[in-house]
Amino acid sequence: MRPLSEIYSGDEYPQVLVGLAEPDDAAVYQLDSGRAIISTTDFFPPVVDDPYDFGAIAAANALSDVYAMGGRPLMAINLVAYPDDLDKGILSEILRGGAEKVKEAGAVIAGGHSITDAEPKYGLSVTGEVETGKIIRKSGARAGDVLILSKRLGTGVITTALKRGIAAPEHVGEAVQSMSRLNRAASELAQRHGVRAMTDVTGFGLVGHGLEMARLSQVNFRLAMESIALLPGVAEHAREGVFPGGMERNREYYSQWLETDGTLAEHEYGLLFDPQTSGGLLLAAPLERAGALLAELVAQGEDAFVLGDVVAGPGKIVVTKS
Ligand code: CO
Ligand code: CO
């Protein structure tokens, strides 16, 4: 197949400010001199047992890519797949969870499409807006910037433990809260504090998504393993080797661009590649703004923490113990 980027050459579509040429969290299309629309979609099978929570998480996750561009969601379309014999009460709980989350984001669900499928799936197609001068891309991080993550890590580990029937209910509860949380406040604060580059940490894990930023910014990201905050229960399950299949795939692919000082334990490697669902925003903040940004993130209830900094380099992730 001819690659899409050849069929749609960037030169022919100058209105596409962010598209296939330099893929980012979402596509951005310029409307006039000041405004652009953001478009993105995501959907997946249930990650938790409660249908309402699943709907809320899937919606928060789909909305997140708008926030990751520095934008504001306006409108969403439901994308639904479910087996014919699924209890309609379950389906309506999934949709209610999604609808209330979209409303919380200040956006509206304006339509949808459903198909029959053996395994239920839910998500959204989201349209948002951003001022053209305020788009925050993955590129733009500079040496000296401070790296902040707005949510704790480890949702892949906890949802895997849940599937295996070994997760403590309170650990699942904390993970659900984290995954359901909108990245809105983090995105707004990033705008206000001049964050230079950002993305949301999702399926490719911390290293995969961090690497995209580092490469596009042509810098190295230096992370301190001991600074990485984990959700409750994650460290224990990780030591037991409880990881989703996606962790190994991420590790196999991204390891080649990861440098460590040789002190990391096996489970710590796994955590660096743990696929996240509705993860936090990874922010590259100017050094002089990072302290105020972190304080405001925490004041707004985010589980934000500094996990490293940006240094000169060819586009790698460097992880040390501390
Ligand atoms: Co993203
Ligand atoms: Co996505």
Question: Secondary-structure blueprint of this entry?
Answer:
Layout: H1 4-7, E1 16-18, E2 27-30, E3 35-44, H2 51-67, E4 72-82, H3 88-104, E5 108-116, E6 121-131, E7 146-149, H4 155-163, H5 169-180, H6 184-192, E8 197-200, H7 205-217, E9 220-224, H8 234-239, H9 245-254, E10 258-260, H10 266-273, E11 281-285, H11 287-299, E12 305-311, E13 317-320
Helix pairs in contact: 2-3, 4-5, 9-10
Residues 42, 65, 202 line the site of one cobalt (II) ion (CO).
Structure report:
It is a single chain. With 322 residues, this protein is α+β, with helices and mostly antiparallel strands. It has two domains: 4-134, PurM-like, N-terminal domain (60s Ribosomal Protein L30, Chain: A); 138-320, PurM-like C-terminal domain (Phosphoribosyl-aminoimidazole Synthetase, Chain A, domain 2). It is built from eleven helices and 13 strands. The strands form two sheets. Strands 8-11-7-12-9-13-10 form a seven-stranded mixed sheet, with helices on both faces. Strands 1-2-3-6-4-5 form a six-stranded mixed sheet, with helices on one face. A hairpin with a 4-residue loop joins β2 and β3 (35-44). The chain is globular and about 55 Å long. It starts with a helix and ends with a strand. The mean pLDDT is 96. One cobalt (II) ion is lined by residues 25, 65, 68, 199-200, 202.
